[in-house]
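Purpose: get a first structural picture of the assembly so the mutagenesis plan has something to point at.
Setup: two entries, given in the order below. No constraints added.
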Amino acid sequence: QKEVEQDPGPLSVPEGAIVSLNCTYSNSAFQYFMWYRQYSRKGPELLMYTYSSGNKEDGRFTAQVDKSSKYISLFIRDSQPSDSATYLCAMKPSGSRLTFGEGTQLTVNP
Amino acid sequence: EPEVTQTPSHQVTQMGQEVILRCVPISNHLYFYWYRQILGQKVEFLVSFYNNEISEKSEIFDDQFSVERPDGSNFTLKIRSTKLEDSAMYFCASSDPAGGDSNQPQHFGDGTRLSIL
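Result (structure tokens, whole complex):
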């Protein structure tokens, strides 16, 4: 079983839609959960960073972590064409190594 | 906003040659990392570095790889004898040591695309 699983998509939505991106994981030791956005030929850009279970909101973005189900989500409200990118979930136990999902390719159509 | 910078953006090297990838982390950060992403695959951890020594490395980071902080601003990854399968995007990342915590979020550069011929 993969440590982190993420549906690679592609996912295509109309502008203004609510987008839901998800990852599941198997390692109970993961405590820190991140979402990165990656544009073509660019590095991962940190969007959200959460510790343990719960919700975190930042503008149009909401991150949810459910440690009991080993499931994390990123919601994007009022999606814009500029949100078109690959979204990577990443997580780690206490310490340094990040484990990434495969990434979900999102296209928001005007 | 401070950022991690990497040079060169693209490196083409003959198989068997040595290559050095360079990174300038965010200035007050003290934890440094290298990751790689083979085309079409996920981002993979290579190594982390703190206080002038390797703190963790993956099984990918074998004797062909080494890291160095040659001065107060640069962080380098050296591949001693490159192989075809080393072709990938290599990302440098750094994090803030706030409170001595290695769990602060990692910020990434835009990567060096390494092509081995």
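The longest strand of chain A covers residues 85-92.
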